[in-house]
RNA sequence: GCUGCAGUAGCUCAGUGGUAGAGCGCGUCAUUGGUAAUGACGAGGUCGGGAGUUCAAUCCUCCCCUGCAGCACCA
């Protein structure tokens, strides 16, 4: 037996016989470490404690203290324990896959009968029984034929398929706890008792397609969440509740911003408060775009199918379009139109009017373009994913050699916009040529290089999405992060070589010959509807003053202050502030509560004292204390704060 | 679109095979009250839509619509 040297993370070295396991080393270091050990990392490879170490190695023993490894192991073992629990309760259920995901895991099962909420409780209880058994986890490497034969014999067709998907040369590893067995890459805990029995919870059941393909069989997926201890689980559940409190659908109702109803699924009825946010945002974008050298246009909603055929939408996008047929009986003519799902073909029509010269380029054309798309019913979600929406759309017609400068210009435009709207940072994703594409490799080379270098020049290193570009050109996607760390893809910037060709756009170059322009499709917010949803959730309804629909409420404490309040509101309105009085016959506590729930940023309370002194008691949303200042001071402060960010100085 | 769940007063929700209840909100009256709910009284729904079973359906069955969660989709 040869001796090997094990080097621990602190640099300490220990000598053992070759073939010793990580678990044995842990026990040798100390009895308590031996107990606490969950798994180990050997020369950078995350492994089971039970695997022998044959040569000199760096070794790190993982315990519950190592958060990422511990969570990975716990969740992974939860997945297996859940699958075992399900098969022990319903032996005829077929197992498929059960990966670790953010905050937990899921496992997909094939079972005729749907799992019910009560079933989840039963499964959860069974899981705790399995954990209490403290069954050791055992592993073996099998050859492919044996694994296939085993799963065929045990009637697990999905596992047979999975074995077939494991690449040649990769070990086929089998795991057991108790008699239950699963195919798995590992690693796993040393025994089932290492899963904290009070720190996991089954969350929900849903359908999911086998291998993520809608053409395949639909399986039943059970989601669970698991943590290192009860406190972490509780913190996570509390966080979910907090996130639910900012749900834009709930706040939209509470703040009286909008509503939706079943006669118009996926479309929004904007109430005065919500429309105020919308127009404030649109006014802001319009000023920014004008300053950015865009010309604003507006194009038709209902457009003949001929244009969609020419643009390619009829062929590629028809499923998502609202088709409008006018029949002969009523109109004495037959016409098939479609509501526009995108603005680009219409913009090319404007570009195509008259002759364009190279001197006209780059031509930056913007439209707050209302579009309608027949989104699948299951995709609809509040005002975030709708069937009728308005994009802050724009198309830049330019020469190939202008792509880089225009891209840089747009990135700076977008970056300022996000900053103005209260978002700290954003990520950029770069998608390059897909397999099936239009345009020559040479043109793609140029376009990709231009996008990349413009992004890098802006000091941004994009995340690469190889092969994910549109068939007509490469694209950048801009993802912003909200106040609670969620990512939202909003902006987009796409190079398009195809549409100008299909719709025959051209300009006369310096050489007197016609040339094809390149089109850059770009949007900053994406759609107003979705972006406002994001804003609501980002601010939890507490909008900065300039965006808030109702900026100030002047609330009277006694009715003797009614006239004074009305006068203050008149002064505030004259200063351009959205203000209203609340002189209802209610107590000040009641009014403060109601307007706080309604997320009004500023309440000015006025009673006898204020009338006498010409002051107001200013209370900001969420603050406990109010401040007494003169009316003139209040107007001056609020005027400044209510000014849109881009107009301030 | 697929799977599952849900749809009762403006909102949140309870409830029953014999035509329905609470809190908040709303209205009226009283109260003029200092920074997150003053009190009393009152109005308000035929229980998402359609069909069926039944002497009788909001409650059971079927179909449809809409919503929610996830999957798929997001050109």
UniProtKB/TrEMBL annotation:
Binding site for Zn(2+): 344, 395, 521
Subcellular location: Cytoplasm
Main location: cytoplasm
Keywords of this entry: Aminoacyl-tRNA synthetase, ATP-binding, Cytoplasm, Ligase, Metal-binding, Nucleotide-binding, Protein biosynthesis, RNA-binding, tRNA-binding, Zinc
Cofactor section: Zn(2+)
Domain TGS positions: 1-63
GO terms, molecular function: ATP binding; metal ion binding; threonine-tRNA ligase activity; tRNA binding
UniProt EC number: 6.1.1.3
N-terminal signal peptide: none
Catalytic activity: tRNA(Thr) + L-threonine + ATP = L-threonyl-tRNA(Thr) + AMP + diphosphate + H(+)
UniProt xrefs under SMART domains: tRNA_SAD
Cofactor comment text: Binds 1 zinc ion per subunit.
Any GO CC annotation of this UniProt entry: cytoplasm
HAMAP family the record matches: Thr_tRNA_synth (MF_00184)
Protein name: Threonine--tRNA ligase
High-level lineage: Bacteria, Pseudomonadati, Pseudomonadota, Alphaproteobacteria, Rhodobacterales
């Amino acid at each position: 037996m040869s001796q090997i040297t094990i080097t621990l993370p602190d640099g300490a070295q220990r000598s053992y016989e070759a073939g010793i396991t990580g678990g044995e080393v842990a026990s040798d270091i100390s009895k308590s470490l031996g107990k606490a050990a969950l798994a180990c990392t050997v020369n950078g490879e995350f492994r089971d404690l039970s695997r022998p170490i044959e040569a000199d190695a760096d070794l790190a023993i993982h315990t519950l203290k190592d958060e990422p490894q511990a969570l990975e192991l716990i969740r992974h073992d939860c997945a297996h324990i859940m699958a075992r629990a399900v098969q022990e309760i319903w032996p005829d259920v077929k197992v498929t896959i059960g990966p670790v995901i953010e905050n937990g895991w899921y496992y997909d099962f094939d079972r005729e009968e749907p799992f019910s909420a009560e079933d989840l409780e039963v499964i959860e209880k069974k899981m705790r029984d399995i954990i209490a058994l403290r069954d050791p986890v055992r592993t073996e490497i099998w050859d492919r034929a044996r694994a296939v034969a085993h799963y065929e014999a045990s009637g697990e067709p999905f596992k047979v398929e999975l074995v077939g998907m494991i690449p040649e040369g990769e070990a086929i590893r089998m795991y057991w706890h108790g008699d239950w067995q699963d195919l798995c890459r590992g690693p796993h805990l040393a025994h089932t008792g290492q899963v904290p029995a009070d720190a996991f919870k089954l969350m929900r059941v849903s359908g999911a397609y086998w291998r993520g393909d809608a053409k395949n069989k639909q399986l039943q997926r059970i989601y669970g969440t698991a943590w290192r201890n009860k406190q972490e689980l509780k913190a996570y559940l509390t966080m979910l509740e907090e996130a639910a409190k900012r749900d834009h659908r709930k706040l939209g109702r509470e703040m009286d911003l909008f509503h939706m109803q079943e006669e118009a699924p996926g479309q929004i009825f904007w109430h005065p408060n919500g429309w105020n946010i919308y127009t404030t945002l649109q006014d802001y974008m319009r000023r920014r775009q004008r300053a950015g050298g865009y010309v604003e246009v507006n194009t038709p909603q209902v457009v003949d199918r001929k244009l969609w055929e020419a643009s390619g939408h009829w062929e590629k996008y028809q499923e998502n379009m609202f088709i409008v047929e006018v029949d002969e009986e009523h109109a004495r003519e037959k016409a098939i139109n479609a509501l526009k799902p995108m603005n680009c073909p219409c913009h090319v029509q404007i570009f195509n009017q008259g002759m364009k010269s190279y001197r006209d380029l780059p031509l930056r054309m913007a439209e707050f373009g209302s579009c309608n798309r027949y989104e699948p019913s299951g995709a609809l979600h509040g005002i975030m994913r709708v069937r009728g929406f308005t994009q802050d759309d724009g198309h830049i017609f330019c020469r190939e050699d202008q792509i880089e400068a225009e891209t840089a210009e747009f990135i700076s435009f977008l970056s300022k916009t996000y900053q103005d709207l209260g978002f700290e940072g954003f990520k950029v994703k770069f998608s390059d040529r897909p397999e099936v594409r239009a345009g020559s490799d040479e043109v793609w080379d140029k376009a990709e290089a231009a996008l990349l270098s413009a992004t890098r020049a802006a000091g941004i290193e994009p995340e690469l999405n190889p092969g994910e570009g549109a068939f007509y050109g490469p694209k950048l996607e801009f993802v912003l992060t909200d106040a609670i760390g969620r990512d939202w893809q909003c902006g987009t910037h796409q190079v398009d070589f195809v549409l100008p060709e299909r719709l025959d756009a051209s300009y006369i170059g310096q050489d007197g010959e016609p040339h094809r322009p390149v089109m850059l499709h770009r949007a900053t917010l994406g759609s107003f509807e979705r972006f406002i949803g994001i804003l609501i959730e980002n601010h939890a309804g507490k909008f900065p003053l300039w965006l808030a629909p109702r900026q100030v409420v002047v609330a009277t404490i006694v009715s003797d202050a009614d006239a004074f309040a009305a006068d203050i509101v008149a002064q505030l309105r004259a200063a351009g502030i959205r203000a209203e009085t609340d002189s209802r016959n209610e107590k000040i506590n009641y009014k403060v509560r109601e307007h706080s729930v309604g997320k009004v940023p500023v309440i000015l309370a006025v009673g006898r004292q204020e009338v006498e002194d010409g002051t107001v008691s200013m209370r900001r949303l969420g603050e406990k204390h109010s401040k007494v200042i003169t009316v003139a001071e209040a107007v001056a402060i609020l005027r400044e704060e209510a000014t849109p960010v881009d107009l301030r100085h």
